[in-house]
Amino acid sequence: NAGVTQTPKFQVLKTGQSMTLQCAQDMNHNSMYWYRQDPGMGLRLIYYSASEGTTDKGEVPNGYNVSRLNKREFSLRLESAAPSQTSVYFCASSVFPGNTEAFFGQGTRLTVV
Amino acid sequence: GENVEQHPSTLSVQEGDSAVIKCTYSDSASNYFPWYKQELGKRPQLIIDIRSNVGEKKDQRIAVTLNKTAKHFSLHITETQPEDSAVYFCAASRSFSGGYNKLIFGAGTRLAVHP
Q1: Which of A13, A24, B43, B63 can bridge B76 by disulfide, Cβ–Cβ 3.0-4.6 Å?
Q2: Is A43 close to B89, i.e. CB distance below 8 A?
Q3: Cα gap A96→A106, rounded to integer Å
Q4: Cα separation of B103 and B27, whole Å?
Q5: Which residues does B19 contact at the CB level (< 8 Å), separation at least 6?
Q6: Neighbour count for residue B48 (Cβ, 10 Å)
C-alpha cells in the first residue's frame, strides 16, 4: 500500500516549457487535489476533483490544467511554465471531498528558470 | 472570499513548555477543522481534527479547541519535545455550491522546540 505517489520528485524547466505532474493513489479515495506550497503562504489549492469524472478550480488555477484520468490518477499540467510557478507541488487524496483526512504525496519541487 | 488566518508564524519554546497556535476562519458554514504537521522536507500529515459539533478533542499531548461563535480554533501541545519541531498548518473545510467541500489552509506556524 503505497498511499499517494507523485512523479517526478524534482524538475527544472525553462520558461515556456510544458510538463505534466503525475499523481496516483491506491486507497480507493474518491477525491483528489493539487496544492502548491510557497514560503509563508501555506498550501494553496490549485484544482481538485471531488469524484471521478469531475474537476473544479481552487484558489490559484491560472496557468494550470488537470485531468482525472480514472479513480486512481489525477495529473496537473503546466502548458507554458513561468518563473512564478516555481514551487513545491503536493497531490493529495481523501475519501470524501474536503471533510475527511487528506493524504499527501511526497511532493514535487519545481523550478522554472 | 474564504480565508483562514493562523498565528503566530513562528514560535520558539523550551522543551517541556506548552505551545499554542491559533486560527480564525471567515466562513461560518465551515464544519471540519484539521491540523497538519510537516517536518522539514516531508509531506504534511494529519495530527488531529475536530468537527463543528465538538468543542474540544484530545490525543495524548495534543488537543484542539473550537469556538464556533468566535470562529476560532486552536492547537495546544503540552510537554513539548524536540521532535515536535515542524511547521503546523490549520485548515477549515467550507461548503460550496454543488455540495462540495474544500479545505482552505492557514499560512503555517514554524515551531522550534529547544532542548
Answers
A1: B63
A2: yes
A3: 21
A4: 12
A5: B11, B13, B76, B77, B80, B84, B111, B113
A6: 18
Q: Indicate yes or no: CB of B101 within 8 angstroms of CB of A48.
A: no
- From chain B, the residues in CB contact with A35 under 8 A are 105
Tell me, rounded to whole angstroms, the distance of Cα B68 from its chain centroid: 15
pLDDT tens sequence across A12-35: 999 999 999 999 999 999 999 999
CB A23 within 8 A of CB A89: no
CB atoms within 10 A of CB B81: 12
pLDDT digits (tens, 9 = 90+) for B55-109: 999 999 999 999 999 999 999 999 999 999 999 999 998 766 665 677 889 999 9
What does the buried/exposed string (b/e) look like for A60-92 if buried means 16 or more CB atoms within 10 Å of the residue's CB? bbeebebebeebbbbbbebeebeeebbbbbbbb
| Nearest CA-CA distance, residue B91 and chain A, Å | 9
Number of alpha helices (DSSP H) and beta strands (DSSP E) in chain B? 0, 11
> How is residue B13 written as a grid cell?
519554546
Cell of B8: 503566530
pLDDT for A51-61, tens place per residue?
A: 898 999 988 99
Q: Is A18 exposed, middle or buried (0-12, 13-18, 19+ CB in 10 A)?
A: exposed
Instruction: List the beta strands (DSSP E) in chain A.
Output: 4-7, 10-13, 19-25, 31-37, 43-49, 56-57, 64-68, 74-78, 87-94, 103-104, 108-112
Which residue, A4, A54, A53, is CA-closest to A28?
A4
